[in-house]
Amino acid sequence: MNIVVIGGNGQLGNDVVNAFAEGDDQVSSLTHAEIDISSLESVKDCLHKTCPTVVVNTAAMHNVENCEREPVAAYAVNAIGTRNLALVTRDLGATLIHVSTDYVFDGTKSAPYVEDDPPLPLNVYGNSKLAGEYYARTLNPRHFVLRTSALYGKYQCRAKGGRNFVDLMLELARTRGKVRVVNDEFVSPTPTRDLSIQIVSLSRCDSYGLYHATSENSCSWYEFAREIFSIAGVQCKLEMAGPGEFPAKTPRPPYSVLENRGLKKIGLSKFVSWEVALQRYLTQTLSAPVPSCRA
């Protein structure tokens, strides 16, 4: 297949490119310098030249505070950008795989969210991503919309300062020896490599629709940090932060655990527990130098 990855130089995009390249697919990576998804003309020009079979959209404005300060820019990328990709891929007869977020929920549920739970975003980022979901789902029948959570990977996320949570915890342990982490926010930490493998798997089928795509089970950020230090063999004084000790500038869902019900229903879930996924990730990254993003 002819695959185009939008945002192929990002934290997730790099792994998606690599996952497709490991097969027999022809893979092209498009960066922001090469395609402006907020411009319909730019999307038409780039995709009509490559005539892809599948377009994977990993591009987003996902710094939550920046989205809140610049809502017009956030909607231009996260909503209108997805609309443009959905329109052009539909006209080309191509499949659109669009990556969304757990932040479409408000976090008041006490059990994992499933695909048909009503979304209720708390911030501009979540609202703009939800709008993008609706564009993808209504404009191109050949779509996969994947909601994921708490991504981390070996490639840097420049929008978040270049470090994922795992990297940050290991650095703080090394430089400070003591870390305080919240224990009242719950997620399903998901490696970008695992999500990329799931994306490749879905690209081979026609079970189009909305799916949750995260590691199995869940943990608090405190529990995640504790497991990081345990697996890495790092000696660090880990303490629970008190309620409200690190107040967020922008409201976030306190519980954004997703259940991969849709993927399991079609027998295509590739995910393992977050603990096993973290073990794999640290085993690989601690034994090799961490690569930088593609230029």
Describe what you observe in this structure.
The protein has helices spanning 11-21, 40-50, 64-69, 71-92, 124-139, 165-175, 192-203, 221-232, 261-265, 274-285, and strands at 2-6, 26-30, 54-57, 95-101, 143-148, 151-152, 178-182, 186-187, 190-191, 209-212, 219-220, 237-241. It is α/β, with parallel strands linked by helices and 295 residues long. The protein has one domain (2-285): NAD(P)-binding Rossmann-like Domain (Rossmann fold, 3-Layer(aba) Sandwich), CATH 3.40.50. The strands form 4 sheets. A 6-stranded parallel beta sheet has the order 2-1-3-4-5-10, sandwiched between helices. A two-stranded parallel ribbon has the order 6-9. A two-stranded parallel sheet has the order 7-12. It is globular and about 55 Å long.
What does this entry show, briefly?
The chain is of the alpha/beta class and 295 residues long. It contains ten helices and twelve strands.
